[in-house]
Amino acid sequence: MRFRLTPRETSFYDMFAASADNIVTGSKLLMELLGADTSARAEIAERMRAAEHAGDDATHAIFHQLNSSFITPFDREDIYSLASSLDDIMDFMEEAVDLVVLYNVEELPRGVEQQIEVLARAAELTAEAMPHLRTMDNLTEYWIEVNRLENQADQIHRKLLAHLFNGKYDAIEVLKLKQIVDVLEEAADAFEHVANTVETIAVKES
Q1: What is the dihedral angle through the alpha carbons of 43, 104, 174, 152, rounded to the nearest 10 degrees?
Q2: CA-wise closest residue to 120 among 159, 153, 143
Q3: Pfam families, from UniProt (predicted)?
Q4: Which of 31, 57, 110, 196 has the fewest other C-beta atoms within 10 Å?
Q5: How many CB atoms lie under 10 A from the CB of residue 204?
Q6: Nearest to 188 by CA among 99, 101, 121, 98
Q7: Cβ-count burial 69-108 (b if 16+ within 10 Å, e if not)
Q8: Per-residue CA distances from 125 to 149, 159, 175 (Å)
Q9: Cα 53 off chain centre by
């Protein structure tokens, strides 16, 4: 790791960890949505909105700290990118839950549970990885696995689209369900953006 003669602001590490932990909360709410009756979904959506607001607060705290810190633990643009990508994940997960409720979707298509399982695993890996930013140790397997999960999410997404367009659903229902599975795919992409940013930071700091 690069030797520094000046002290570094270390609260960023804790804030990134808190943001990632909040994403785990969001992924658990997605899992809860899968097994919930339609009557229970609004309450889950409300809790997801609260988690998304907590994510916004965490992101704003990072940006405030960034703007007020003379010395940062790594490049400012990387801090901004990492915080923004973590925030994107929560935004996409909250959007997916909200769409399910707003569209009054009675039954999610088979395969959505696989999408959400991938997101839940990526959330766990991301939360486990954030504390390692302090030392930049043991991160390689993290970004390799998240990239693998994103490739898996792509395959699941393509199969879901094929299923939606097989003639079983009417046109309006296809539009509703496609928007939901597309947003879940965007969440998977955002996890990959986080992993790629962590890899960039680790390479710079090595």
Answers
A1: 10
A2: 153
A3: PhoU_div (PF01865)
A4: 110
A5: 12
A6: 121
A7: eeeebbeeebbebbbbbbbbbbbbbbbbbbbbbeeebeeb
A8: 11, 25, 32
A9: 14
> What is the phi/psi pair of residue 54, to 5°?
-65, -40
Q: Residue 60 and residue 111: Cα distance in Å, rounded? A: 35
Two structure tokens written together for 78 = 């990387």
**What is the CB neighbour count within 10 angstroms for residue 176?**
17
Return the C-alpha torsion angle 200, 63, 21, 154, nearest 10: -50
Outline where the chain has alpha helix (H). 11-34, 41-68, 76-102, 112-129, 140-164, 171-205
Is residue 4's pLDDT more than 50?
A: no
Could you tell me which residues come within 8 angstroms of residue 111 by beta carbon, excluding any fewer than 6 positions away? 156, 159, 160, 163, 181
Tokens read off for 124: 């766990």
In tens, the pLDDT along 151-205 reads 999 999 999 999 999 988 999 999 999 999 999 999 999 999 999 999 999 999 8
Tokens of 110: 């088979």
- In one-letter notation, the amino acid at residue 116 is I
Q: pLDDT tens for residues 17-70?
A: 999 999 999 999 999 999 899 899 999 999 999 999 999 999 999 999 999 988
Residue from 112, 119, 90 nearest 177 by CA: 112
